[in-house]
Design brief:
The protein is of the alpha+beta class and 445 residues long. The chain is globular.
């Protein structure tokens, strides 16, 4: 089995890995952005450099755009579809052999909605989206508050904490476990699996990383298959049980999209909460403004999403000939990288884009959750969780300070922190924190 998976890795990641490595040695900024250390730690200087090459960057390792209007248009244009796991540029015999290898259901493998186009995408998304309607998400508000309070109470007993492992990751995993009906005791298991599986979203990962990810997806497949069968026999009152009982999706489709629900409900939130904390500490005037005017928290969260998005890039495949101007003519089968981070820092749409400003009036126009039919299904849940968790954290620990440099995750597509040691200081007590709705009016500066 490992030999077959090695063929798949070679086509999907090995060939791009060699190409990216060669171009990095030549100093290519696009290759450095996709697979270099600086692309993971601070992608924005590279993005500015690439933006200077035009609305569409054409380089040795493919096409990319960092232009807000073009990114938004591509995400919404039906002439572009979901990417294929194996790039058509991979040599024919290797590609054909690799395409015969079936991986366990995961985020990057059909029938995951990320990899489907209409009409299959529409059929799949409709029942899954019921988990994230505004009404369904709003009903989770009390639970989000309870989980946040429980975590802060536990942290109060200690003088220090890892704000990722002890807080930012624990809020969303508790909520998504409830939505999917997992026992609380299994949350840490899914955190470990998720940490191993998410590199599949990157380009050109190592064989060792790929093998570990596939082993974890196989273990998740077994767990989820047993969980689904149990829910069929003994339906429960949770969102996933309703989805299972509806009969709209097969077991394989349910497993693939349970993976997607976990990612949509977890990855965005942990990175939004985690990215916000150092940003606010490095901009104390903005944190002071939030403490003085807590009704500004929703706008602050939108600015965090714009300034340092949890998902940096998306990829689209050309379905029919497309003329993007400036002598860029894309033929069917070609792929283009849509830089969500680049769009969010486009000075043509966001004046002074490298300034972090929680009063920015158009911050919510960011593309951090994508746009069009593949827009992030967990966006409303991520906003809700961050809107409760972040104010509660800073309210409970007014003397909170980072204890050393936070460490980033070693990923290019997902942008967040792995660890964030902090000194908590004396807790202020479990005082009430305003519950902010994202439609609330905020006074203009």
């Amino acid at each position: 089995m490992n030999a077959r998976y090695a063929i798949r890795w070679a086509a999907e990641h090995g060939v791009p890995r060699l190409a990216l490595r060669a171009q990095r040695r030549l100093g290519d900024p696009f290759a450095r952005l996709l697979s270099g250390a600086e692309g993971r730690s601070d992608p924005y200087s590279l993005i500015d450099q690439l933006r200077g090459t035009g609305r569409v960057h054409t380089g040795p390792v493919g096409y990319a755009t960092f232009d807000y209007q073009l990114c938004r248009a591509i995400l919404r244009d039906r002439r572009f579809g979901a990417r294929t796991p194996i790039d058509p540029a991979v040599p024919g015999p290797l590609r054909r052999n690799a395409e015969r290898v079936v991986l366990p259901p995961n985020l990057t493998e059909a029938p995951s909605m990320l990899m489907l186009d209409p009409p299959e995408h529409s059929r799949m998304r409709k029942p899954v989206a019921s988990a994230f309607t505004p009404r369904a998400v709003a009903r989770l508000g009390d639970q989000v508050r309870a989980v946040t309070t429980e975590l802060l109470d536990a942290m109060s007993a200690r003088g220090s904490a890892d704000l990722i492992g002890d807080f930012a990751a624990q809020v969303p995993i508790a909520i998504i476990a409830e939505m999917l009906g997992f026992p609380a005791a299994d949350r840490e298991l899914f955190l470990r699996w998720g940490d191993v599986v998410t590199p599949l979203l990157d380009v050109g990962i190592s064989w060792r990383t790929h093998r570990r990810a596939i082993d974890a997806t196989a273990a998740m497949e077994g767990y989820l298959a047993a969980h689904i069968e149990k829910l069929r026999r003994e339906p429960r009152e949770n969102i996933f049980s309703v989805l299972v009982s509806s009969g709209d999706l097969s077991t394989t489709e349910l497993i693939a999209n349970a993976n997607l629900l976990m990612a949509a409900g977890f990855e965005t939130t942990v990175n939004v909460i985690g990215n916000a904390i150092p940003l606010l500490f490095s901009h104390p005037d903005q944190l002071d403004l939030l403490r003085a005017e807590p009704q500004r928290w929703p706008g602050a969260i939108e600015e965090v999403l714009r300034f340092d998005p949890p998902v940096q890039i998306a990829a689209r495949r050309v379905l029919e000939p497309v003329d993007l101007g400036a002598s860029v003519h894309l033929q069917p089968g070609k792929s283009i990288i849509v830089s969500l981070a680049g769009a969010n820092r486009d000075p043509a749409h966001f004046p002074d884009p490298h300034r972090f400003d929680i009063t920015r009036t158009n911050a919510k126009e960011h593309l951090s959750f994508g746009s069009g039919i593949h827009a992030c299904i967990g966006a409303s849940l991520a906003r809700l969780e961050a809107a409760h968790a972040l104010p509660a954290l800073f309210e409970r620990f007014p003397d909170l300070r980072l204890d050393g440099e936070p460490s980033r995750r070693g990923l290019s597509t997902l942008h967040g922190y792995q660890h964030m040691p902090a000194r908590l200081g004396r807790p202020a007590g479990a005082r009430a924190v305003p519950s902010m709705a994202f439609g609330d009016r905020v006074p203009r500066s």
